[in-house]
Amino acid sequence: LMIRRPPRSTLFPYTTLFRSLTEKTQRNSISLEMSSEKIKLKTKELQLLECIESNSRASYIELTRKLGISTISIKKMLKKFNKEKIIIQYKLILNYKKLGYLWNNCIIETKEGENIEELLLDLENNHKITFIAVSIDNKIIFDCLNKDFDEFKDFINKITFNHKKLIKGYTLLNISSISKFDIFKESNYLD
């Protein structure tokens, strides 16, 4: 189970924009099961993935010029990528520090055999949480934006108190920097 937020924007068809933390609208999310099904891609498809991985806002004209294929072919490939869940979401990476927020991460270790659905629902309903993932062994990993670390600790204390029978322990991390790597530049990656 993987849930990504914030909601999609209509301004750019393939870009997700940052949503204000004070906005009180219905939250959109994307859920997917991680599948081991392998899909064989053609060279031009891999090149297209490389282009949009490094710049998800590239126009069809830019992609056509760079790849030497028609706009119609690019649209068909993108449709295939979305249908096959190769592309899950087009997303910006924001500098939250410049917006006045700390980007925090928490890994919650749950007790074996316990149902985590209620805990997940509590996390999903918190408008400051931007990402939730669940590992095979039911560890819950989530990202949370807060004004300061004390606010984040207060939130974690409330969650652990409300779910004390379920939570075995947790690790708090304050994210100071992020690096995003374009993995398709290494052609051997998918071999």
Ordered list of secondary-structure elements with their pairings:
Layout: E1 2-4, H1 43-54, H2 60-67, H3 71-83, E2 102-110, H4 117-124, E3 129-134, E4 140-146, H5 149-162, E5 167-175
Antiparallel strand pairs: 1-3, 2-4, 2-5, 3-4
Walk me through this protein's architecture.
With 191 residues, the protein is α+β, with helices and mostly antiparallel strands. It has 5 helices and 5 strands; from the N terminus they run E-H-H-H-E-H-E-E-H-E. A 5-stranded antiparallel beta sheet has the order 1-3-4-2-5. A hairpin with a 5-residue loop joins strand 3 and strand 4 (140-146). The longest helix is centred in the last third of the chain and has 14 residues, at 149-162. The chain is elongated, with a radius of gyration of 19 Å. The two termini are 27 Å apart. The model is unreliable at 1-27 and 187-191 (pLDDT under 50).
